[in-house]
């Protein structure tokens, strides 16, 4: 029970990060990605059966992804490609490709939430499109660490 409560707390903290955007768009983007990371960690733990499946945590992870998907695009204005960021210049160079990737992320996340998985197999199915989308976007629109 303690582990489930801890995972739920991690997801709540991630959601709070979303709600507390800063005036610095790069910092806000990093907070949003940290929230996604927390959700992905919990989801992956359940998918790999390292932690017991819990439908409440599964739903929280899916809802976190959806919240980030619909707010993330607001934090990439022109000129925010310099500084402490891993955002690739491709975001601004290929605005149409970036917009299409973001729309796909939104659609995948919304579909996963709408699926409302109640068991591990349906959760794995619901999350697979979202995580595949994340991987694809990271490969195209994120710089590697130096």
In the CATH hierarchy, the third-tier topology is known as Four Helix Bundle (Hemerythrin (Met), subunit A)
Average pLDDT for all residues: 88
Structural class: mainly alpha
Which term fits the overall shape?
elongated
Strand content is under 5%
* Helicity, as a percent range: over 70%
What is the C-alpha radius of gyration, as a whole number of Å?
15 Å
Q: Would you report the number of β strands? A: 0
- CATH superfamily name? Cytochrome c/b562
The CATH C-level class name:
Mainly Alpha
Order of helices and strands: HHHHHH
- Biggest β-sheet, characterized? none
Terminal residue distance: 39 Å
What is the count of DSSP helices, taking H or I runs of 4+ residues?
6
Low-confidence stretches: none
CATH architecture grouping: Up-down Bundle
* Total domain count: 1
Keywords:
146 residues; mainly alpha; Four Helix Bundle (Hemerythrin (Met), subunit A); 6 helices; 0% strand
Q: Would you give an account of this structure?
A:
The chain has helices spanning 2-19, 25-47, 55-72, 90-93, 95-115, 120-141. It is mainly α. The chain has one domain: Up-down Bundle (Four Helix Bundle (Hemerythrin (Met), subunit A)), CATH 1.20.120.10. Helix 2 (25-47) runs antiparallel to helix 3 (55-72), helix 3 (55-72) packs antiparallel against helix 5 (95-115) and helix 5 runs antiparallel to helix 6 (120-141). The longest helix has 23 residues, at 25-47. The chain is elongated and about 45 Å long.
